[in-house]
Write a structure and sequence with these properties.
The chain is of the alpha+beta class. The protein has helices at 7-32, 43-97, 104-127, 253-256, 273-326, 330-356, 362-365; strands at 129-130, 133-134, 142-146, 155-158, 165-170, 178-181, 184-185, 189-195, 198-203, 208-212, 222-230, 232-235, 243-246. The protein has a domain at 142-230. The strands form 4 sheets. A 5-stranded antiparallel beta sheet has the order 3-11-5-6-7, with no helix packed on it. The chain has a 4-stranded antiparallel beta sheet with strand order 4-10-9-8, with no helix packed on it. A two-stranded antiparallel sheet has the order 1-2.
Length: 366
């Protein structure tokens, strides 16, 4: 029997301290709802959980980006709906002006309405904005350049899928134009057609490159730089490059082919019967141009809405995985908490009894 070293008390104290630490940890888990509150709880689990949490929060923002892009497309399509309606009205006026029962003053009145409609189309193209960004003025179309822009030869538009690079266009013969890249034929080139001041190169996959020219100036050796830059890039993922490029072509009267050209030529002149009849073809092409643009916008909207749904599903699954790593099972933890609570109480009682044993040494001294 010893009084300087109470081994039984030390044992009871060590066990009690261990159980108290576990009891405190269990209390923290039940209070926070997390089974990993500190890196020491699970170093690997903490790293995995933090990485998954960062991805989940990024996906929520990507989903917001895609939803905002849907609103952008709807805004542009709403504006084009009105442009479409005005073109239909111009077509009606063209049909009316083509008949021989009208007088010159009647056609002058029709031309005034046509001019007003063109001015409104131009205003819509300039003023249609989303978050101060112009949508129909050409800012959201693909950027391309030529070495003869000052001569009226410029890149009007091209599809995102059209391979970027530097091309050489030969328009010396409009009946047999050619386009090359790095001195070689363009791979998968389907055809190249030049008419009505536009030269369109089409690949087998349907992607197109459109370059303007003038009837008096269509030389060889036109350098065409397809940059691959332009449009509104929508970040729809958590990594670089996970984006959707929304391209909206320019929609002013000149781009539609119904505006007054730089040389003063007016493709929509309904002041004469013959002029009205020739105007119908230009209006028809403009309607088709707008229809194609709206069809593309509809495809963008469907794709973006599918992206939103996909991101929501991915986020839900990641939330489940994150919960498995990070969240505590309350029922299981409550079992441990109750067990530890009993052990702490038992340890406290045993420590008290171990501390009473040295008192028995006094009986030997009596």
């Amino acid at each position: 029997m010893k009084i300087n070293s109470n081994i039984q008390a030390l044992v009871a104290q060590n066990v009690l301290r261990t159980n108290e630490e576990k009891h405190a940890s269990s209390t923290e888990k039940l209070s926070s709802g997390f089974k990993i509150n500190h890196a020491k709880d699970s170093p690997a689990g903490m790293a995995i959980g933090n990485r998954m949490n960062a991805q989940i929060r990024s996906l929520y923002k990507a989903k917001d980006n895609a939803s905002n892009a849907v609103n952008v497309v709807q805004t542009a399509d709403g504006a084009l709906t009105e442009v479409h309606n005005m073109l239909q009205r111009m077509n009606e006026l063209g049909i009316k002006a083509s008949t021989g029962t009208l007088t010159t003053s009647d056609r002058e009145a029709i031309q005034k309405e046509v001019n007003a409609l063109r001015e409104e189309i131009d205003r819509i193209a300039k003023d249609s904005e989303y978050n101060t960004q112009n949508l129909l003025g050409g800012e959201q179309q693909m950027k391309g350049y030529t070495n003869m822009t000052n001569r009226g030869i410029k890149v009007l538009d091209y599809d995102v899928e059209f391979p970027k690079g530097k091309y050489i266009l030969d328009l010396s013969s409009l009946d047999n134009p050619t386009i090359k890249i790095n001195g070689h034929d363009v791979p998968n080139l389907k055809d190249i057609v030049c008419e009505d001041g536009r030269c369109t190169a089409t690949l087998n996959d349907g992607s197109k490159l459109v370059v303007s020219y003038t009837e008096s100036d269509h030389p060889a050796g036109i350098e065409v730089d397809v940059t691959g830059i332009g449009g509104m890039k929508i970040q729809v993922g958590t990594s670089t490059g996970q984006e959707i490029q929304v391209v909206i072509p320019k929609m002013d009267p000149l781009a539609l082919g119904i505006g007054v050209k730089q040389d003063g030529e007016d493709p929509i002149d309904m002041r004469t019967q013959d002029g009205a009849r020739s105007s119908l073809e230009a209006i028809k092409d403009a309607i088709e141009y707008v229809s194609n643009a709206r069809s593309r916008l509809g495809a963008y909207q469907n794709r973006l809405e599918s992206t939103v749904a996909s991101l929501a599903e991915t986020t839900e699954n990641l939330e489940g995985s994150y919960s498995t790593v990070k969240d505590v099972d309350m029922a299981e933890e409550m079992v441990d908490y109750t067990k530890l609570q009993v052990l702490v109480q038992a340890g406290t009682s045993m420590l008290a009894q171990a501390n009473e044993q040295p008192q028995q040494a006094l009986q030997l001294l009596q």
